[in-house]
Automatic annotation (TrEMBL):
<protein>
    <recommendedName>
        <fullName>CDGSH iron-sulfur domain-containing protein 2</fullName>
    </recommendedName>
</protein>
<keyword id="KW-0812">Transmembrane</keyword>
<keyword id="KW-0496">Mitochondrion</keyword>
<dbReference type="Pfam" id="PF10660">
    <property type="entry name" value="MitoNEET_N"/>
</dbReference>
<keyword id="KW-1000">Mitochondrion outer membrane</keyword>
<keyword id="KW-0072">Autophagy</keyword>
<keyword id="KW-1133">Transmembrane helix</keyword>
<dbReference type="GO" id="GO:0005741">
    <property type="term" value="C:mitochondrial outer membrane"/>
</dbReference>
<keyword id="KW-0472">Membrane</keyword>
<dbReference type="GO" id="GO:0010506">
    <property type="term" value="P:regulation of autophagy"/>
</dbReference>
<dbReference type="InterPro" id="IPR019610">
    <property type="entry name" value="FeS-contain_mitoNEET_N"/>
</dbReference>
<feature type="transmembrane region" description="Helical">
    <location>
        <begin position="36"/>
        <end position="54"/>
    </location>
</feature>
<comment type="similarity">
    <text>Belongs to the CISD protein family. CISD2 subfamily.</text>
</comment>
<comment type="function">
    <text>Regulator of autophagy that contributes to antagonize BECN1-mediated cellular autophagy at the endoplasmic reticulum. Participates in the interaction of BCL2 with BECN1 and is required for BCL2-mediated depression of endoplasmic reticulum Ca(2+) stores during autophagy.</text>
</comment>
<comment type="subunit">
    <text>Homodimer.</text>
</comment>
<dbReference type="GO" id="GO:0000422">
    <property type="term" value="P:autophagy of mitochondrion"/>
</dbReference>
<dbReference type="InterPro" id="IPR045131">
    <property type="entry name" value="CISD1/2"/>
</dbReference>
Length: 132
């Protein structure tokens, strides 16, 4: 039953539809065309086929995994938490990473500069100052 319906559409209805279409033979004929509504189904199908054809070449949307901030630091933990006692600071200034790219995490190694240049981001370190 289903195959008979599809065969009828392809063999009978589609050729009859295409014969009735007012397809102009010149560009001037397209400009003067007034029966645009009759062409809409055909143009819609052609647009859909064109989109399906070029879709593999379009840029892909970022997947959820691509939007992760922390790509490598303590990924086995459900939440990364670092606790630092301010009294234990040995120097007057200490910089801590906020971009998650530092190889010396949680201490900043200025990896954010490369990250900012690549992405246009503006992240910087958290600086703790010890006042004596």
């Amino acid at each position: 039953m289903m195959l008979e319906s599809i065969a009828r559409i392809i063999k009978i209805q589609l050729p009859a539809y295409l014969k009735k279409l007012p397809l102009p033979e010149t560009i001037r004929g397209f400009v003067r065309l007034t029966e645009w509504l009759q062409l809409l189904p055909l143009l819609g199908i052609l647009a859909l086929l064109g989109y399906i054809t070029i879709r593999p070449f379009l840029p892909k949307k970022k997947q959820q995994k691509d939007s992760l901030i922390n790509l490598k630091i303590q990924n086995e933990n459900p939440e990364v938490v670092n606790e630092i006692d301010i009294e234990d600071l040995k120097s007057t200034n200490v910089c801590y990473c906020r971009c998650w790219r530092s190889k010396t995490f949680p201490v900043c190694d200025e990896s954010h500069e490369k990250h900012n240049k690549l992405t246009g981001d503006n992240v910087g370190p958290l600086i703790l100052k010890k006042i004596r």
